[in-house]
Design a protein that fits this description.
This protein has a domain of 116 residues: Formyl transferase, N-terminal domain (Rossmann fold, 3-Layer(aba) Sandwich). It contains 4 helices and 4 strands; from the N terminus they run αβαβαββα. The chain has a 4-stranded mixed β-sheet, covered by helices on one side. Helix 2 links the parallel strand 1 and strand 2. The chain starts with 18 loop residues before the first helix and ends in a 16-residue tail after the last helix. It is globular and about 50 Å long. The C terminus is likely disordered. With 166 residues, the chain is of the alpha+beta class.
Length: 166
């Protein structure tokens, strides 16, 4: 999808061993590209406190609601086996406190015993996508209004006339 829209894509491999260097590389990319928002989707790393502070209000995380109840690689199957009837997703700003940042958007979808574990996964991905889209929209909307409120408009016509205009 990124390729189809000529959007630059940067892949920075993060491991326990190279985490400080990877985060430094991320900051470098953000500064070079003047990136205003980072979205973490299925990012299974904890960002450092320093990076969270430096990029406060610029990183959004999206995740399903199954943590901490259903840990591991297949939380949807575990939820299905336990008879969970609601799947929800939360998008929030990333802070140094893991998954404690201000919530931007949430939504829920109801499931029934007639659905399969695969249905849970599909419905979960749908609700995550919708929540993420609304969270990004809300962030952009807020940013736009902040910038509009900082603009200074002339008090009367002609206030910005240059010397050359008389």
């Amino acid at each position: 999808m990124v390729v189809n829209h000529d959007i630059p894509f940067h892949h920075i491999k993060v491991t326990r061993e190279n985490k400080p260097q990877a985060e430094a590389q991320l900051v470098e990319v953000v500064e070079q590209t003047e990136t205003e928002l980072i979205v973490l989707a299925r990012y299974m790393q904890v960002l450092s406190d320093a990076l969270c502070r430096r990029m406060s209000g610029q990183i959004i995380n999206i995740h399903h609601s199954f943590l901490p109840s259903f840990k591991g690689s297949n939380p949807y199957k575990q939820a299905y086996e336990r008879g969970v009837k609601l799947i929800d997703a939360t998008a929030h700003y990333v802070t140094a406190d893991l998954d404690e940042g201000p919530i931007i958007e949430q939504d829920t979808v109801r499931v029934t015993h007639a659905q399969s574990p695969e249905d849970y996964v599909s419905l979960g991905r749908d609700v995550e996508s919708q929540v993420l889209a609304r969270a990004v929209h809300a962030h952009i909307h807020q940013l736009f209004h902040q910038r509009q409120s900082h603009r200074r408009f002339p008090g009367k016509p002609g206030s910005f006339a240059s010397e050359r205009m008389g």
